[in-house]
Amino acid sequence: MGSHLLLPFLLLLSSPYVQAQQRITLGSSLTTQGPNSFWLSPSGDFAFGFRSIEGNTSSYLLAVWFNKISDKTVAWYAKTADPDPALVQVSSGSCLELTSSGALSLQDPTGKEVWNPEVVSATYASMLDTGNFVLAAADGSSKWGTFDNPADTILLTQVLTPETKLHSRTIATDYSNGRFHLNLQNNGVFFYATAVQSDPQHEYNWSMPGNATNLVFNATGMIYITLDNGTQVKITSGKTSSIADYYHRATLDPDGVFRQYMYPKKFSNHLYTQAWSVVDFKAPNIYIPRRSIAETQVSSGTCGFNSYSKVDVINNQTTCVCVPQYTFKGGSKGCTPDFQQPSCDLDEAGATKQFQLVTMSNVDWPQCDYEQHDNIPNNQCQQLCLTDCLCAVAVFRDSDNTCWKKKLPLTNNVVGDSVQRTVYIKVPKNNSQQPELLDSNRWKKDKKHWILGSSLFLGSSILLNIVLISVILFGTYCTITINESPSVQSSNNLGLPLKAFNYTELEKATSGFTEVLGTGASGIVYKGQLQDDLCTYIAVKKIDKLEHETEKEFTVEVQTIGRTHHKNLVRLLGFCNEGKERLLVYEFMTNGSLNRFLFGDIRLEWNLRAQLALEVARGLLYLHEECSTQIIHCDIKPQNILLDGNFTAKISDFGLAKLLRTNQTQTNTGIGGTRGYVAPEWFKSTVITAKVDVYSFGVILLELICCRRNVELEAAEENQKILTYWANDCYRCGRVDFLVEGDEEAISNLKVVERFVAVALLCVQEDPTMRPTMLKVTRMLDGVAAIPTPADPSSFISSLR
């Protein structure tokens, strides 16, 4: 008898929903404020309860969030039921109650019920350490859980069944349904996310060889679809760090991209930022192909009319931004101009006088063309738009000198480094309305307006003359003062297309230069955050110990760096040249250096490593051959290759070699560059050319292939201690598979691995003349150029000691 009574109790304890969990008993309740506003999981990793909405402290979500991290990232929030789910939002004084009948009821301050999960007769509730809040039956089984009713995020161990949807947010801080949803369908054809209220061009899908049964985010960090035939189709790589050391989530972000993230539970290395970083993603850009005007269906696109998406490198999310001098109107309406469009009564001179073009890059609106010009120079393209009253935007493609003229509304934006076009937005020269622009017809019809206009013109002319005389006198005074008291050139009169920061501004942005991102021969790099509308994160490099002669060259070198623009180069945002302070301000790279991922716990998948190699090669090709002034980097190494939120490789510290003293570009090797990556000619009395970068790239390419350092003196096998020699031996024995042993993805792409190894060995030839140019390297890596057999490289041990 006793054993029969004990059996249900033992079954209850064995349930995964009950083990080590704290029960929330019937009659328990939460309020929006005070200590009783949420329930914690046993570990404290997750919380369920009321969460105030950012920017609106009187409105609350019912949510689940990561409780132990600084930003309390929300993983679930309550919405009404399908087919038209809407955000549940309550005000201060609301209450959540687990009633005595076993129902969960959310009530507003008046006591009116505003939400319930339509579940009754639950025995208790529990906030689990998985992040799942459940209403449980007496036997421990789940009657309802947040995992079964997701918002925009899934967590480890969560499973989506067919027809279960993820809805993106509008923007990161607005939890209402955005323009995208992700839906797993069981018809075995596709898994897709599509823009809501838009045309079907926005779909992207993955074909599957069977009927889908579930989408699984398993306990090891892998996301895959299970099919009815038992096979699994991977959605993400699953190449993550220890699950015990990192939090994980996968979110359908506001830009329609499904990203997998991780966040370190402990923060012990001051060189890296404790923030969410992207592990993998699907559909980095929902590309809309250019079609003929007859086929075009106007749609407001991802962000609405006259807007574009902007990546937040810290949160790896995309927000919608209006083009310059346009204002966001909300929803699919997008943005409208803050000024009246040019009157077609204006002649060419009038249009040029009143309007100007603002430059943007890496964005396009492919469906808005009304006129195309081929083989014309850039300046002519700009002038054609400036003098055309219908033209709101000109787009120019340098590769073939193609010019497109676009009219409003701008729709279906495409954003990303792959969009290699320059955009010119037409805006007034000042944001105030010109009288002749608003009322040109009335001036022609009403004589009194002509008289008034003449009076205004005469008065304005007199005032303008007074101002000009004042400016001339002031300028003369300043010139005399400057000649009498020479000083370091102000950063504000360099005429650069970069922002000139003052030292105080950067000191404030970096909180007194406290958080170090990295150190090197050129100085220390600090993390900072600008006080602009987007709270942009930046990396500030303090360049130390410039000699007096080099100080004079600082502005020239900054001009050279500022003119470089390529998707595989870290972008220079600005500089500071104040007194003796020399600082460079760069875009902040969320995922840090390649060094972190090549030699750390995280192993990047083969396809991503191959892509990184190509990106570094293209960045070097631009520096060597495509920018206006050739730049030899002289210190290519994994620490100087940074990764953005989408794991795009970008070369940093280019153009700094001329700013440093000779002994500042040297390490303990006594030569330029860094141990293990230096070319043999550094040891000889020969001219240093761009081939030193080719040598360094060859070493890095081998490290990307093998996921190990070039020099590992602790290696078990003597012949494996120097990677370049071991790779050469493996290549000549026809066993490059030894280099990627245990890497199934690389083994399945062994032909590509062999090609990459051959290119690397060509790059590390001792004789610089035998190394290929970076143009040849990129063509060989892409598989479009034949690869000669590399010569057996001579030993050069001294370069590695």
How would the blueprint of this fold be written?
Blueprint: H1 2-14, E1 29-31, E2 38-40, E3 46-53, E4 56-66, E5 74-77, E6 89-91, E7 95-98, E8 104-107, E9 113-115, E10 124-127, E11 133-136, E12 142-145, E13 153-154, E14 159-160, E15 165-171, E16 174-184, E17 191-195, E18 204-205, E19 212-217, E20 223-227, E21 232-234, E22 246-252, E23 258-264, E24 277-282, E25 307-312, E26 317-322, E27 326-328, E28 335-337, H2 348-354, E29 355-361, E30 363-364, E31 369-373, H3 378-386, E32 393-397, E33 402-406, E34 414-415, E35 422-428, H4 435-438, H5 440-445, H6 447-484, E36 499-500, H7 503-509, E37 516-520, E38 523-529, E39 537-543, H8 548-562, E40 572-578, E41 581-587, H9 594-598, H10 606-626, E42 641-643, E43 649-651, H11 691-706, H12 723-732, H13 744-747, H14 750-763, H15 774-782
Parallel strand pairs: 36-40
Antiparallel strand pairs: 1-7, 2-3, 3-4, 4-5, 4-6, 7-8, 8-9, 10-11, 11-12, 13-22, 14-19, 15-16, 16-17, 17-18, 19-20, 20-21, 22-23, 23-24, 25-26, 27-28, 29-35, 30-34, 31-33, 32-33, 32-35, 37-38, 38-39, 39-41, 40-41, 42-43
Report on the structure:
α10 packs antiparallel against α15 (774-782), α11 runs antiparallel to α14 (750-763) and α12 (723-732) packs across α14 (750-763). 38% of the residues are buried. Helices cover 22% and strands 26% of the residues. Among the domains are: 1-149, Bulb-type lectin domain (Agglutinin, subunit A, Orthogonal Prism); 293-438, Hepatocyte Growth Factor; 446-483; 592-801, Transferase(Phosphotransferase), domain 1 (Orthogonal Bundle), CATH 1.10.510. The longest helix is centred in the middle third of the chain and has 38 residues, at 447-484. By secondary structure, it is α+β, with helices and mostly antiparallel strands. It is globular, with a radius of gyration of 31 Å. The strands form twelve sheets. Strands 36-40-41-39-38-37 form a six-stranded mixed sheet, with helices on both faces.
